[in-house]
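Here is one chain, start to finish.
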Amino acid sequence: MAKRLKGVILAGGTGSRLFPLTKVTNKHLLPVYDKPMIYYPLQTLIKMGCKDIMIVSGREHCGDILNLLGSGRDFNVRLSYEIQDEAGGIAQALSLTERFVGTSNVAVCLGDNIFDDELTSYDLSDFDGGSRIFLKEVHDPERFGVAEIRKGTSCNVISIEEKPVNPKSNFCVTGLYVYDNKVFSYIKNLKPSERGELEITDVNNFYVKDNLMSCHYLTSWWSDAGTFESLLKASSLVANKKLCSCENNYQSPLPTVGADGECGESKISNK
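Its structure:
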């Protein structure tokens, strides 16, 4: 990947599914085991090689995020901030970062997504433009955006469908994306969905249509933390990993998570 990679964390939204916890704070500041939620996507982008990262948040609690993360000095990165004045969808929030991204490529992570895979700049060494999505095999794909892969290929994405009744695969699109700077041109051509928002799935399908979409298969667990159940699950996954790494034979008292679905191990290989 020749171009510089900048990072964007989308940390807006009202967090209504976590009310009343989010009545007085942004959901991305809630704890996931021993760290604020937003630390996890930040660490993901840093490991992928991002040194300049912009955080997009709503107006109400943006000061709390700034107070927590500051300039980024504690993480050895440069942080900047943008305000999404009102809800308009993931793609609309991303559009606010156009000047920040400039001519660079951009890695975009949703602020409530937590990845166990150790993604690094090596995983993007062959990225030379277009878009890359990160797929996870799940047992309930109808809950997610689902990628259809062309038969006989390892990662030729031919369509992405949001929460399909009859999923064409078990591979869901997680909240991590890499784009070239053409993404902003695609966003400008979007029309609002039925719920009045600019959808990131529509952006991804523009790349699919132009044959500019590639993918990476996640092989370890992934979870969002946007509901009470997924917040508990994410905390348990992080805790189990940390406790077990301290003592190989340690039996965690925390609830375990099944090996399938978005929080399980996968046998998929990126080779």
